[in-house]
Amino acid sequence: MDEELLSRLKARQLRLSMSCASAFLIALLALPLLNYWLPDAMATRIGGFPLTWLVLGVLFFPYVWLIAWVFIRKSMALEAAEVREVQQARHRETPRP
Amino acid sequence: MIAIVDPYILVCSAFTVVATVFMGFWAARRSKSAADFFVAGRGVSVGWNASAISGEYLSAASFMGVAAMVMSSGYDALWYPVCYACGYLFLLLFIAGPLRRFGAYTIPDFAEGRYDSPLFRKIAVIFVLFIGCFYTMPQMKGAGTTLAYIFPGLPYWAGVVLVGSVITLNVALGGMKGITLVQAFQYWAKMFAISVPVFVLMAAYGGYGYQFKTKPSAPLPEKAPAESTWMNPFGPLTTKAAKAAKPTIVYTGELKSLREDWGLQWKGGQMGMQMPSVSFTTTSQEKPAMSILNEFIHAQLTSRPFSVLGASVQVDYSPRIEEMSVAQQGSTFSSMQAYTESLLVGLQRAGITVIQEGNHYTAFPTKDGTLKPINAKPYALLYTYSLIIALVCGTAGLPHILVRFYTNPDGVAAKRTTMWVMILIGVFYVFPPVLGVLGRNLIPSLYAGAGVSGTDGLVLKLPTILQERFGILGSILSGITCAGAFAAFMSTFSGLLVSMTGALAHDVYGRILRPQSTARERMQMFKWCTVAIGAVSIFLGTLVENFEINFMVGQAFAIAAASYFPLLFMSVWWRGMTMKGAATGMLSGGLLAMAAISLTSWTTFFSAQAAKFKSLGRTEPDWFSALKPYSLADFWSDHPLLRILCEQPAIWAVPLAILLMVLVSKRTARDIPSDIRMKMLVLHAPEELGLKQEYIREHEGH
User: How many other CB atoms are there within 10 angstroms of residue B276's CB atom?
Assistant: First the structure.
């Protein structure tokens, strides 16, 4: 396997991980800021819950599961594509009988 | 009152212990090879492995600590369960796959394999032990608390010793194969034990949402946070440091009046004074304290250098009692404190407000100034972010969790396992906060108590309120939560023992001390190491009676976040890392975080001890009084920002560790392992390509 392939491989994986991580981090890190700047809106009651409690204590979990699920699907697809690619390359390199 | 042991609670708890021990012994007979012993032979199915990881992960902090903290602090404490659960996402995204592909039994294996450095392995081993110790302490606290609840009157330390010994023995005889089975069982035991009481309690007393609308059943004790504080996203936990800070004085009067009233002379706008010793008489009637202070200040001004902060006079007051001869209208004061109190009252009547903090006094005319506490919100925001970073990154760096990824048959299974772990622990973490909310409404009396009769005993105690209405059901449910608590600290402590013992037996003994030892000798050593580490953990556990379970776990996470997380993250994704860079970053981040945390724990220890002596009506022992000036309490009240940065160091320690790794690696770039290309391929290329085998062949060829 050549250098170019390695860096491409790593870059693709990192891009996938990073985009999933940012979906997670934006939500997680925005919540304290929303609490800071919009305390009244975040204290709105929904079914008894203050909004911010509902988001953090209940809704956050399914959101994270969704991200994890998307990541696992995509990363498995990515690996399959990588395997195909490498095998094709090897195939081309092998001299025909 | 003679304490009575509730038979239901005892039976349920005993069942958990016996089942755990039995499974351990049963599995011990089936585990044969050394590989079996250390990592359970790598052939554990996704379902089992996910349950086992979750079982190991859900510790006393999750089972007892989270609910307790939600009850005592409210919204702030929600960050703990959420980040405990979500930290796994980080593990999945960045670390689980590559680490698994690289293939190694332990983190030290990875550290050595990635950098070809036996030295680095030793450093990593020491860190496994450090973080493990920090993490065992809260588990022991959970054990001591639970036993004190089951056997009322049993001293805390006895519970720690008893539970610690049982688990240690179990691990020494069972090994990890037993653990996988036991951990998986314990996950489901914990899930059952936390969810069933929640559903029953909600059916009897109203649902989760409803509980936010109702008021507590009894008036809240004085120690309890008010409704608005408790619901506030920046509540007691995150604002603690700022609330303890010294208030600033906003001076509204004119500087002129200050000068005239107090008879001060300006010298270039800077004023103030030292009061090394004082000797004067004061009564508010005959001679106003104001004028006494005037005279005193005059006298001081003529002889001493001084400085003024803003418009308030800072009086640095370092009393030496032997020099004091204080009299009030002929009577001598019995102590320095009595004198001070009298003086403060006198000054207050005379219109001078004096704030006392330790030996430090600030005085200003009451009519001209107001005390303004510092704005706690920005500090709380900082605290929150630092906490989030610690918990999210720390999960990825916990040694006893990472080792589990090697028990998956392949990388896809490792990822599936992580997905299931996230679901299993996510579902679990919805419940403890519910108990916290119910606890606030249903048994507010816990706010007033300490130890097991305080909020840390909430999960165990809450179901007993059902006794009033449903009789025996309350006892049974309380027995179930006790069983769950047992499962919680037993499973996590077992997991920690295995990973710490693994480090000692597999690394220190098997590789450093006696590399030529046989597999049989290593197995033998594993058992002795378990006993040794168990003993150390029990000892440490007896020291932490006064610390909150959840808080201690958070600290262990912060240290892991500042050491292992940067190591793993950077080693996996950056090919330019060198051993020196990795070691420098990991050690600096981890050790500095640990030092910072220890500083604040030191202060907490002192204030908890002082409160204990006071509640027992005992005088403080000499060693305590001698060390008290060094408790740093005054320092933290002067510097709330530093306090937050020390209590929650992740926000600076994680970036610092990464920065050091980059800088040192750049400087030592020629030390990059020569086969780095192959290593990165093994870390990142799909396993189906079989690069790992190629790599091993290449190495053997040399």
Answer: 12
Q: Which of B90, B209, B689 lies at the smallest CB-CB distance from A86?
A: B689
Among B243, B239, B248, smallest CA distance to B381 is for B239
Decide: residue B138, CB within 10 A, 0-12 exposed, 13-18 middle, 19+ buried.
Answer: buried
Q: Which of A60, A82, A87, A90 best tests the B interface by mutation, with the highest count of B CBs <10 A? A: A60
Q: Do B388 and A32 touch (CB under 8 A)?
A: yes
Do A56 and B79 count as a contact with CB atoms less than 8 A apart?
Answer: yes
The CB density around residue B391, as the number of other CB atoms within 10 Å, is 26
Give chain B's mean pLDDT: 75
pLDDT tier at B27, thresholds 50, 70, 90: low
CB atoms within 10 A of CB B535: 14
Residue B283 CA to residue B292 CA, distance in Å, equals: 9
Chain B residues 538-577 within an 8 A CB cutoff of chain A? 573
| Residue ranges covered by each domain of chain A | 3-93
Query: Quick check: B264 and B271 in contact, CB under 8 A?
Result: yes
Token readout for B303 is: 């002889």
Burial B454-491 (b: 16+ CB within 10 A, else e): bbbbbbbbbbbbbeeeeeeebbbbbbbbbbbbbbbbbb
The answer to whether B565 touches B396, Cβ cutoff 8 Å, is yes
Give the CB-side neighbour count of residue B572, counting CA atoms within 13 A: 28
Q: Where in chain B is the domain with CATH 1.20.1730.10?
A: 43-136+188-220+384-475+493-517+545-671
pLDDT at B311 over 50: no
Per-residue pLDDT of B101-110, as tens digits, reads 887 667 788 8
| Amino acid in position B528 | W
Quote the minimal CA–CA distance from B384 to chain A in Å: 7
Task: Tell me the mean pLDDT in the region B423-448.
Answer: 89
- Give the residue-averaged pLDDT of B396-400: 71
Matching residue, tokens 């994680």:
B654
Name the band, by pLDDT with cuts 50, 70 and 90, for residue A70.
Answer: very high
- The answer regarding whether domain B43-136+188-220+384-475+493-517+545-671 maps to CATH 2.30.40.10 reads no
